[in-house]
Predict the structure of Protein GrpE.
Amino acid sequence: MALSDNTNGTAGDGEERRGPVIRDNRRIDPETGEVREPQAEETAGDAEEAVEDTAADDAGEEGVEGFEVPDTPEQVVSEAINADERVVELTNDIKRVQAEYSNYRKRVERDRVAVREVATAQVLGELLPILDDIGRARDHDELNGGFKAVGESLEGAVAKLGLERFAEKGDAFDPTVHEALTLIPVPDITVQTVVEVFQPGYRIGERVLRPARVVVGDPVDGAGEASGTGDTETGDADEK
């Protein structure tokens, strides 16, 4: 018979104190002479002890749940390096996403401005014939009364939208904004020049809504004319 002391003492009040537990481990019952079966209590106690030992071993190996305790200093250094590399990788990802978002915003803003300019140009293009009528009425001193107030208000409104009128007499001819209706020789000029405006041009910023229709003066080659005159006189003298 074995005697085991499972006394558990506690200092706190109200907690139960357990005395010594005596287990009779003899396999033959001295009273009946029969072989005894293992006691259920002993089996349960052994199972509990096995579970506690297993839990202690697991806690010692794994430490905090979900975290493996490194075995060597080299492993600690390796994990630290891997963590730093991961931080750098995530930082680069964030910077790349920010750059893509910034480019997207710039592209959207650029497209919005382009759409607004196209819409404004279409509306103002429909008003150009009316502006031509106002200009002709002003040239003939017919822009007066209520018609004058309306015309000036319309011209001021389109100017606020960015519409600009161009082409004046004496401007240098520019084929990108001028449409030459005819070309005439003009003395005392060195470059092709607008000598008359049939229809003014209009633009918004760098966008030309309508080129100006003009008459272009071409410089006269004085030397050529003089040479031609001399040849004529020489011919007349030979004939004589």
Remarks:
- The two ends are 170 Å apart (CA to CA).
- Residues 107 and 227 are 62 Å apart (CA to CA).
- The helical segments are 40-62, 73-139, 145-160, 222-239.
